[in-house]
From TrEMBL:
UniProt keywords, alphabetically: 2Fe-2S, Disulfide bond, Iron, Iron-sulfur, Metal-binding
PANTHER family from the UniProt entry: CYTOCHROME B-C1 COMPLEX SUBUNIT RIESKE, MITOCHONDRIAL
Presence of the UniProt keyword Cytoplasm in the record: no
InterPro entries: Rieske_2Fe-2S, Rieske_2Fe-2S_sf, Rieske_Fe-S_prot, TAT_signal
Residues in Rieske domain copies: 194-288
Coiled coil: none
Example GO molecular function: metal ion binding
Gene3D superfamilies linked: Rieske [2Fe-2S] iron-sulphur domain
Protein name: Rieske (2Fe-2S) domain-containing protein
PROSITE patterns referenced in this protein's UniProt entry, alphabetically: RIESKE, TAT
Length: 288
């Protein structure tokens, strides 16, 4: 299929089905996660969930009902990890209240949508590997490194000039990764990372970013480091896996320098953090 074509053209009837299903989900701001998500929403014994404020990379076009949640990062010894808060028994979630003095609570519930809520990766008390591990399937440069090895700062030394022929060069260098994996480096959540001068400006509140709401700017300043930003890479429309500079046809939908989802042309701006609210899906009860 050409990269600039709709995966579900109107004449197939498939689009009508998708719109019907997604429309009902969008009304409650809930992503669709297949059978697992349906089970979770109908099971009275589900854990966590409910109305959840979060900070996202903004959805700027297409049918997605909201942005994708940002993952605060930390860098230790050059390795880049996603921060996972301590478990809060009262909240029933992993929770960092007033994250970085921003007034925003960072919670594991941010990631409870699109079936992710049914995985071990987001169980708040699970002991998992928080290091971002290399996923070689998206960007050719990542094939120079072993699959599953830690993502490190020195992999992005050319971030100010990097380009792959999609959109403008120098906007940022992306990587695909898995996060919160088990001891074998498997069963993690899909993540994308960018290192960009724009992220550095956001963190410092420079130029146009001086107009960010104070709490969002404070959050971004704490959640990014050395120009790196990360997010859970699950489209909030129909749970596809979008990408920053992964599709040549993204230029036809205003997404050449943004995160673009080919399935239904949703576009997200990684340089526009916003605070939003959605209904996090309950986690199925954990069985020992």
């Amino acid at each position: 299929m050409p990269l600039d074509e709709d995966k579900y053209p109107a004449e197939t009837g498939r689009r009508r089905f998708v719109k019907g299903v997604v429309g009902s989900a969008a009304l409650s701001s809930v992503g669709v996660g297949g059978a697992a998500a349906v089970d979770a929403t109908t099971d009275a014994a589900g854990e966590g969930g409910g109305t959840t404020p979060f900070v996202a990379v903004e959805n700027t076009a297409g049918p997605a009902p909201r942005g994708m949640p940002i993952i605060p990062i930390e860098i230790n010894g050059g390795e880049i990890s996603g921060l996972w808060p301590d478990y809060d028994e009262n909240a029933g979630a992993a929770l960092a209240s007033d994250f970085g003095g921003s007034g925003i609570d960072y919670s594991s519930q941010w990631f409870q949508y699109c079936g992710i809520q049914s995985t071990e990766a987001v169980y708040p008390q699970s002991e998992r590997n928080n290091t971002f591990l290399n996923d070689t399937g998206t960007f050719s440069w990542q094939g120079e490194y072993d699959s599953g090895e830690p993502i490190t700062v020195d992999m992005f030394e050319d971030y100010q000039d990097w380009g792959n022929g999609i959109g403008d060069s120098g906007v940022g260098k992306p990587a695909s990764a898995v996060w919160r994996t088990n001891s074998e480096g498997k069963n993690g959540a899909p993540v994308q990372i960018i290192r960009s001068v724009e992220v550095e400006k956001m963190a410092n509140g420079e130029g146009e970013y001086a107009n960010l709401p104070g709490n969002v700017q404070s959050f971004v300043s704490e959640a990014t480091d050395q120009g790196f930003i990360a997010w859970l890479n699950k489209c909030t429309h129909f749970c596809c896996v979008p990408g920053f500079k992964t599709q040549e046809g993204s230029a036809n939908f205003g997404g050449a320098n943004a995160i673009y989802c080919q399935c239904h042309q949703s576009v997200y701006d990684p340089f526009s953090p916003v605070q939003s609210t959605f209904v996090a899906l309950p986690r199925p009860p954990k069985t020992e």
